[in-house]
């Protein structure tokens, strides 16, 4: 295949000889011919140096950072224009003539850990001539999320006196990857009373058992303070104040009476009393208003009633 950019002209010397060797004399200039071949130039499309780019970026990087430069050249030395396809959320941009791939906004691995797009290189003089390459951007995990407690524990309870092997199973979650999330650690607050009354026993990387550490606690709703930490360095943690109901139970393990409410929280009886008292006050105020209005606007006797009163005539 001839390539104008590699060699634009070829000069060939052709010679003709008999199949049977000459008996005398030698071949002269008339037995040779010089042939010049000129290669016509044809506009060729751009060529990219790689068919696939793999790029790694830490999540949360400052927008505007150059994460890769797409290299291409045009055999005819024409300028190349670059564009992106497949970046539907517009997280990236590329220099029209430089081929520099940049982030437009901070990337979140928890939202998407990999982005794949296509870079199109177009001939600057003929837009029908182009080349393309795939770019895959991998987002490196950063420990930017604290573990959280998951689940509803408001309807659960512990029996007092303590039932053997009875515990609340607490579940947690960390949105970061295993490198930073890993095993989640539960730990009670450093308080003598808390550590005397309660116990945390790990089950696996994300679950733990919360149980009584003493045989008996008075029936009540207790606030159990503990912390959940991830296994990164330095770790991220979340403080939890979990309401836990402790109540006496029947032989089936069901609460026999309602637990004592938290201090400062109104009971049902007190709430009903407050409501009835409010209605009574409103009723008294309305009665006073109606009475005052009736005295201020006395009704005039109607004509009809005056006509019906018989006349007193002296005979």
UniProtKB/TrEMBL annotation:
Pfam families hit by this protein: Cadherin
InterPro entries for the chain: Cadherin, Cadherin-like_dom, Cadherin-like_sf, Cadherin_CS
Predominant place of localization: membrane
Residues passing through the membrane, by range: 271-293
Subcellular location: Membrane
Top-level taxon in the UniProt lineage: Eukaryota
SMART domains found in the cross-reference section: CA
Every Cadherin domain range: 2-48, 49-149
Keyword Transmembrane: yes
CDD domains assigned to the protein according to its UniProt record, in alphabetical order: Cadherin_repeat
SUPFAM superfamilies xrefs: Cadherin-like
Protein's name in the database: Cadherin domain-containing protein
């Amino acid at each position: 295949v001839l390539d104008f950019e590699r060699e634009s002209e070829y000069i060939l010397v052709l010679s003709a000889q008999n199949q049977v060797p000459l008996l005398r004399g030698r071949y002269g200039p008339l037995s040779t011919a010089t042939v010049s071949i000129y290669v016509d130039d044809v506009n060729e499309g751009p060529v990219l140096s790689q068919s696939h780019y793999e790029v790694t970026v830490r999540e949360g990087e400052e927008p505007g950072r150059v994460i890769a430069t797409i290299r291409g050249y045009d055999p005819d030395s024409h300028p190349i224009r670059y564009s992106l396809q497949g970046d539907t959320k517009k997280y990236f941009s590329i220099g029209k003539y430089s081929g520099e791939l940049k982030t437009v906004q901070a990337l979140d691995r928890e939202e998407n850990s990999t982005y794949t797009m296509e870079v199109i290189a177009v001939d600057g003089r003929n837009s029908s001539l182009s080349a393309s390459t795939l770019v895959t951007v991998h987002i490196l995990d950063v420990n930017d999320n604290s573990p959280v407690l998951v689940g509803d524990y408001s309807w659960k309870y512990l029996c007092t006196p303590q039932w053997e092997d009875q515990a609340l199973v607490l579940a947690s979650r960390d949105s970061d990857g295993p490198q930073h999330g890993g095993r989640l650690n539960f730990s009670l607050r450093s308080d003598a009373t808390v550590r005397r009354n309660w116990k945390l026993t790990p089950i696996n990387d994300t679950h733990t058992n919360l149980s009584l550490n003493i045989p008996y606690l008075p029936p009540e709703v207790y606030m159990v303070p503990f912390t959940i930490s991830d296994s990164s360095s330095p770790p991220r943690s979340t403080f939890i104040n979990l309401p836990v109901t402790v109540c006496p139970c029947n032989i089936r393990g069901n609460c026999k009476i309602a637990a004592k409410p938290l201090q400062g929280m109104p009971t049902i009886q007190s709430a009903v009393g407050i409501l009835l008292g409010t209605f009574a006050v409103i009723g008294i105020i309305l009665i006073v208003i109606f009475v005052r209005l009736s005295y201020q606007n006395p009704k005039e006797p109607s004509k009809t009633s005056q006509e019906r009163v018989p006349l007193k005539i002296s005979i």
